[in-house]
Amino acid sequence: MAPNVLCLPGNVSAFRVTLALLLLLSLLLHPISAGHDYHDALRKSILFFEGQRSGKLPPDQRLKWRRDSALHDGYTAGVDLTGGYYDAGDNIKFGFPMAFTTTLLAWSVIDFGRTMGPELKNTVRAVKWGTDYLLKATAVPDVVFVQVGDPYSDHNCWERPEDMDTSRAVYKIDKNHPGSDVAGETAAALAAASIVFRSRDPAYSRLLLNRAVRVFEFADRHRGAYSASLRSAVCPFYCDVNGFQDELLWGAAWLHKASRRRVYREYIVRNEVVLRAGDTINEFGWDNKHAGINVLISKEVLMGKADYFQSFKQNADEFICSILPGLSHPQVQYSPGGLIFKPGGSNMQHVTSLSFLLLAYSNYLSHANKVVPCVQTSASPVFLKQLAKRQVDYILGDNPLMMSYMVGYGARYPQRIHHRGSSLPSVQVHPAHIGCKAGSRYFLSPNPNPNLLVGAVVGGPNSSDAFPDSRPFFQESEPTTYINAPLVGLLAYFSAHY
């Protein structure tokens, strides 16, 4: 192990030194395969988003077993809400995770697009599929349409998206029913994507940024959590547990990065304490942006351009220290096989999002020639990259089960994922309508899914590295867009550097 990977001061007890080194060795020197084709995994991770598309599919659609679906979304509300992504294995369009997915895809392009090679154009298309929908959802001033489809009727059926006959009810937030969380995340997605399209399509970029400004102003002016007024529709599926304050800072951070306007810098500094930037610093996902806020803003501090953001760098350093193996926070554990594990379902969402931040921050540190100082150790950018790579390698097959958790990658991967379209016969094979309850036999079947949802990364194994390859175990076997989105950036980097 390179001496610059981890520095342990001499005053640490022998026990903690030994524990930390053993855990580090198990993570970094764990028996691994001959190597991974990161570019192939990158290509597949992006292809997955085509399998999640809703609406009218384009002529260049590559996953051919999918067909047009939900072509009348928004009709009952007098708006066009076609397009966008199904977030997981169901047929609902949830705006909160869709916006987060779009933000992370855009961040992946911003930080790692130069290493994506020929897959860059496909990633940019994936971003635009999300932003085209978010523009529709925010077309009416002071209104954001945040969901299409009744989740209870949908979850009571096992239907292909092409056959949907359940309610496509439309849910929105407005001045009387605020949702600063989902609106703040939507503003972040639009602002981040405006950077992606700044040179590629300047007019589209300006449209995205102007819309982000308007949506953020609405989110900030009418504060509240969207699950307070939409609880029956969004809970327990994408209920806001963490509060809306972090999304306001997150939206402001991306608007500052995209526009360079002083008003957003002042907003961030003025509201840092009020909006609790230092809370739950080791969380990052669709409902909690704290670690992401601190890492994103810290880049400017490390570049020597923003001393007024110094506290965010301190928070980012604390985030890194909280997830180091052997020294990690009680809320962040490692499985015996070396996988980051946090309580709750769909653990891979934590693995990919936290690993993305490890890699992004390591790059920022490298350019500034800095390390992260912790109480009992300091971690170099090299070590952070190795820790992130270890997580990616675990996903791709370097784990106790020697199973890739990405569908279609490697010799062994999940065969019975919790995904309606993948598990039911395709329209091409079975043109006749398959009704709500008629799909149950496919859900309960022990047979592998007939349609390969290439690139889908499932929720993953439990804390003991065990994985039931079974549709009913949805927390382990269901893929989501917000698992894949941060993985795109990770794979792009590793495809170019390993």
From TrEMBL:
Pfam families the UniProt entry points to: Glyco_hydro_9
Domain Glycoside hydrolase family: 38-491
InterPro entries in UniProt: 6-hairpin_glycosidase_sf, 6hp_glycosidase-like_sf, Glyco_hydro_9, Glyco_hydro_9_Asp/Glu_AS, Glyco_hydro_9_His_AS
Cleaved signal peptide residues: 1-34
SUPFAM superfamilies reported in the protein's UniProt record: Six-hairpin glycosidases (SSF48208)
Origin superkingdom: Eukaryota
Gene Ontology terms: biological process: cellulose catabolic process
Keyword Transcription regulation tagged: no
Enzyme class: hydrolase
Name of this chain's protein: Endoglucanase
Species annotation: Prunus avium (Cherry)
